[in-house]
TrEMBL record:
Keywords: Membrane, Transferase, Transmembrane, Transmembrane helix. It holds the Pfam family Acetyltransf_1. The lineage of its organism: Eukaryota, Metazoa, Chordata, Craniata, Vertebrata. GO terms for molecular function: N-acetyltransferase activity. The chain crosses the membrane at residues 44-75. It comes from the Eukaryota. PROSITE patterns: GNAT (PS51186). This is NT8F2 acetyltransferase. Coiled coil: none annotated. The keyword Membrane applies. Residues 65-220 form the N-acetyltransferase domain.
Length: 226
């Protein structure tokens, strides 16, 4: 098993970090698609579509064709959740990582390095929720290369964030992850995070039963900074 080390982000990591992040997010799109198709709402909609087309055209084959077209049309819509999220990140904080995380107060960015390559990443910044400002930091942009999962890298990166927050007197760390990122949910729950909220990223996400989970980890003996 290859060894790795956690270190602070450097400018030469820029392309590797952005590529790692994009790949990590996009690989969850198929799982999101399968989840939506398994939902009762989607299955009912497909059944109604099949019945309506069959009744109108008089051929069950046309009903099946309509369902197949609906399934094909749903895939790019579901994938757009991932692609739009990636594009937003690459155009905002991951466009200038040093300014976003290394020069900003109470923020940092780490990478996991193995064999001279960046194989993992995580960031921390003040919580976006105004109610959490001054109380909690937010864990962001966690990603580990597929070939290096199961080696404790995610746990080590998460630990860096928790230690960083505790050292600065914060009482909690918060994060958000999608419902299909089951492995990430298990990781965070194993590190003491508890699910405290659920929301849909958009009206379309709500219609497709796609949800985002909000987690919080309260830190022992943490006090908010002045």
């Amino acid at each position: 098993m290859a060894s790795y080390r956690i270190r602070q982000y450097r400018e030469q990591d820029y392309d590797a970090v952005r590529t790692l992040f994009a790949r990590g997010i996009l690989e969850h799109a198929p799982a999101g698609y399968r989840h939506i198709l398994r939902s009762a709402r989607a299955q009912l909609g497909l059944l109604v579509l099949f019945a309506a087309v069959r009744a109108a055209a008089g051929y069950w084959v046309l009903g099946l064709a309509a369902v197949a077209l609906a399934l094909a049309a749903t895939w790019p819509v579901v994938r757009s959740f991932s692609t739009s999220y990636v594009q937003e990140a690459l155009c905002t904080d991951l466009c200038d990582i040093s300014t976003s995380y290394l020069r900003a107060p109470d923020s940092c960015f780490w990478v996991a390095e193995a064999g001279g390559s960046v194989v993992g990443m995580v960031a921390v910044a003040p919580a976006r929720d105004p109610a959490e400002r001054g109380v909690a930091l937010e864990l962001k942009r966690m990603s580990v290369s597929k070939d290096y999962r199961g080696r404790g890298i995610s746990k080590a990166l998460c630990g860096e964030v928790l230690r960083f927050a505790r050292a600065r007197g914060y009482g909690a760390v918060v994060l958000s992850t999608s419902m299909v990122q089951v492995a990430a949910q298990r990781l965070y729950e194993g590190q003491g995070f508890k699910k405290v909220g659920t929301f849909s990223p958009s009206l379309l996400g709500s219609l497709l039963c796609f949800q985002i989970f909000h987690y919080r980890c309260d830190l022992p003996s943490g006090t908010a900074p002045p």
